[in-house]
Amino acid sequence: MNPIDLVLVEDDPMVMEVNEGFIKRIGGFRICGKAKTGKRALEIIQELRPRLVILDIYLPDFNGIQILREVRRQGIPTDIILITAAQDVATVQAGLRFGVVDYIIKPFKFERINTALNNYRTYSEQFRNRGEMNQEDLDRLIKILPSQENPSNRIREELPKGLREITLQQVYNFLKESRVGLSAEGVAEGVGLARVTARRYLEYLEKNERVILETQYGSVGRPINKYKIVL
């Protein structure tokens, strides 16, 4: 199978180098273009029309959402993954409304972008050699996208004071990617939260039946509580 052409947009040279290393490590993708500014990013996207763009939001000239909007306005058939430090709900919603296939919040680990690109590859392969799709095909395809597993799509009640929707999503996604039960300490370290804060989000997800709590007993010491995604 031919590699998927990808354009990488990031203004920080060190972050660009790290992301490039991650992508090469994953395999199956070919970086056909790189840009450090929004203007150059648009030029490359218009010229190459890559299958996928990994786009930072904070660029020296344009906001990444502006680039995303312009790509959609021009009807360029390119999928976009946003990678950014922006966590405010308005920015997240803007990205989702303009059809990003994933939204990764900095700082992130290799496992997160690995999951995003593998999901995208699976998603993209579903369209190969197909003339049409039935409902079952579409349902299976939609479930591949991470946004479908966003806990905010399923938990409708107002969050308790002190909890943030975007952090709830980070905690949920981290658990989902781990595929095994994790302690509050493990989640706190992986997401970058205080242990007590991580526990509050985990308890909220458990209350809403999005995670289950498993207590593991060892031969010595106190039992360990681990949280696991409800499948």
Q: If you had to describe this structure to a student in words, what would you say it looks like?
A:
The chain is α/β, with parallel strands linked by helices. The chain folds into two domains: 119 residues, 3-Layer(aba) Sandwich (Rossmann fold); 75 residues, Arc Repressor Mutant, subunit A, CATH 1.10.10. It contains nine helices and seven strands; from the N terminus they run βαβαβαβαβαααααββ. Strands 2-1-3-4-5 form a five-stranded parallel beta sheet, with helices on both faces. Strands 6-7 form a two-stranded antiparallel ribbon. A hairpin with a 7-residue loop joins β6 and β7. α2 runs parallel beside α3 and α8 packs across α9. The longest helix has 16 residues. The radius of gyration is 19 Å and the shape is globular. 29% of the residues are buried. About 5% of the residues have low confidence. It is found in: Cytoplasm. GO terms for molecular function: DNA binding; DNA-binding transcription factor activity; phosphorelay response regulator activity. Keywords: Activator, Cytoplasm, DNA-binding, Phosphoprotein, Transcription, Transcription regulation, Two-component regulatory system. It comes from Desulfosporosinus lacus DSM 15449.
